[in-house]
Amino acid sequence: MTDQLSRRRLVVGAAAGGSLLSACFNDGAPSQTPNASSLLLSPEEVEREWARLTKPRAALVSGTPLPLDRVLSDGRSKGRKSNADEVALSAVRTLFLSGAFRDLPETARVHPTVQATMRSAMPEFDSAIIGMKQRLDALSPTERADLAREFKRDPQLGERVLAIVDEAAADKDVSDVRRLHLRRMGLWVCERLAQSSEMLVGEYSRKMEKVFERGGTEAESERRLMASLGATSFAAMKSRIAEAEERYRVAGAMRTSDPEYKRATGDSDNSGLLTAGGIFMGLAGVAGIIGAVIVATGGIAGAFVLTAGGVFLIVGLILLIVAAAVG
Fold first, then answer.
1. Host domain of residue 132
2. Domains in the chain, number
3. d(CA 293, CA 112)
4. What's the pLDDT band for 123 if we cut at 50, 70, 90?
């Protein structure tokens, strides 16, 4: 199993390397790419590309039941389906949008249209994570024991579930790079699930509770980000954000009289709270020229950032699908 996972990681890593060499605004150009981070794209180009990147999100508003025929070994789940309920759909939309945001160059993330999209999505980030925790907490001891038994007897179980989720994402025209990120995160999760699903869920539930206890104001988020990056790196990042904001303003990104722009931004002053769910998904808020700005923060090391929230939501999706298959 370990060798198999290692081989798959190499395949995924090679594909990721291809996106590193792609153009700045290609799907999946990592935020760590130096040229991508420093390049300021035109406001119109950012809006056009952001609309393209997020277009599949509209298709994720509703979903069809997933066929579970292939989930359990020996055909034991044949004919069963998993209802695409609101918790699952919110989890998928949250994973998709936070990943698309991270794929943008740093300067493009500052664009007011992008910021407005992320700001408006923050309540769903909360509801996805809280809803998933409630669903997992509601599993009975018998259901938990059944799940643990299935993962121990079948090392490929999680990977088959990932394949089903991937096919559903492809049907919704989710980009190859977004799906690649999901599979990469999913493989890491599967390795942990094979060891102990209870331990993995407990670990991330505790992390989540700590984040929600601390709250989600931008001031608190900024202080934590500065402590994480160090004063010098944080000051440099804040300077880049301020410069990008000002250049977008001068370039005409703040087209407040434009009806299209008003619809995209919600005519918002970009103020308010960054929810704890957003922070758990690896986002933070910093003070900028036009108010609080949402930025991407770190996670587990690697080209594909595994945020605590991303791991938790993927764990939940896999467990709930398997629970439906076990029935």
1. 2-326
2. 1
3. 9
4. very high
